[in-house]
Amino acid sequence: MNILENGESAHSNNDTKKDFELLSRAMDASISGIIITDNLEPDNPIIYCNSAFEKMSGYKRSEIIGHNCRFLQREDRTQKERMLIREAVSKGESCTVEIRNYRKNGDLFWNELFISPVISQDGEITNFIGVQNDVTQRKKTEQDLKQQQDLMEKQIADRTRNLRESELFLSSIIQTVRESLLVLDPDFNVVSANDHFIKTFKVTKEETVGTNLYKLGNHQWDIPKLRELLIDILPTNNPVEDFEVEHDFPHIGRKLMLLNAYRIELEGQFKDQILLAIEDITEKREIERRKDDFLSIASHELKTPLTTIKGYVQAMERVMPENAGERFRNMLSKTSQYLDRLNNLIAELLDVSRIQTGNIELHKLPFDFDKMVKETVEAIQSASSNHEIQITGTSGIKVAADESHIIQVLNNLLSNAIKYAPEAEKVHVHISKVSEFVKVSVTDEGMGISLEDQKKIFERFFRAGEIQQRFPGMGIGLYICEQIIKNHNGTLWVESEKGKGSTFNFTLPVNTTN
């Protein structure tokens, strides 16, 4: 009898496993985007997405897992549909909305979203499942029909006059801007070229206007990738953004050019013409290279004398007489503190130099992630008596990563949370395991970051105006953090509102066993 029961149990387990594999394959085969969120974790992070959702959003799975679904709306946060979704989640109800979302490359797409709660046998809402369909084409058709109806109501004379004024306005802009501009027809022949283009490339209007773009000069613009991008502009309205061309141009020598191309829009309608902007960034790139070289050389040159000075200060502290005055002791202590600050700054500059040259070294070994976070928090807490750092959640796993670099990231996020929220009392750290990633969130109760500054917060040397006025620094800490996390195949991002604090999150792939 026991043998029969064991056989039935094994058969049942095999059936369950086959059902699960079939369900997984079915979800990945679906043309609808499917996500699953964890309602038991703060902020309902995404724990599963199928291939269709990756294709629809343009993000990789590693860039999706751990985020709340609202990241797809970017700065477009005033949609009433967001409130409907929030209410449905808080009430544990299903809902259907059509909402504006944005792909990774910034393109808008309309999303028909169905969300529904997943309820356990105990009646607890453990997850939400979202099924998403791209209805952009339908929306576009509706908008085109409405636009066509509006256009038919206008008088032909007014439309002609407005078109002429718009063309004159565009022509005046093209001629006055200090950037080379070309207008191309659908066959990529030059319709017009501004004076800056003529002067920069030392050509005449006669040999430029009417000539195919790919035949200009010595065929310097005949680049397969550029052809492909330009071909997509007219039918899809996808612009070419920041496309670099390095070439030995006739009469002006070797230059690095940055190309941006857009479909021309007049009176709300797209004409079959392309505006191509060409910027010479040769000198700008050379200045950046020189700046990086200077930072690298200066950092290395300063490191040796500072190490020597630090050694002398430490020697003075060891041989200090017992009857030394309090003032002398304080001066020596402050000297040591400022030397440590300067050493840390130089270390950061060296990190920036290594990142820019691609020489950052990672030594990935498994370590107890929760223990690392706890010890890092304890070290920061011991040096900060004005803030209480609270840890919630656990991952219960080991992570294969460069532990010293991850500690550097966490140290920076915690230090910033304390530094930029001097009046606050608490800093919150939450750890969780989200799918095959570990996630850490550091939340402060500080001044918050504007949406505009959030776009640049991880750029090298960027500092927001308000922060720059109140707090010292060079603006390289978060840049280093993002590069470290990116080199670990994780993601680092911020969620913030002015006056309501900030939450910095990062995920790391687990890639190891317990």
UniProtKB/TrEMBL annotation:
Its EC number is 2.7.13.3. It is found in: Membrane. It holds the Pfam family HisKA. GO terms for cellular component: membrane. Signal peptide: none annotated. InterPro entries: BphY/WalK/GraS-like, HATPase_C_sf, HATPase_dom, His_kinase_dom, HisK_dim/P_dom, HisK_dim/P_sf, PAC, PAS. Residues 297-512 form the Histidine kinase domain. This is histidine kinase. It comes from Pedobacter psychrotolerans. The lineage of its organism: Bacteria, Pseudomonadati, Bacteroidota, Sphingobacteriia, Sphingobacteriales.
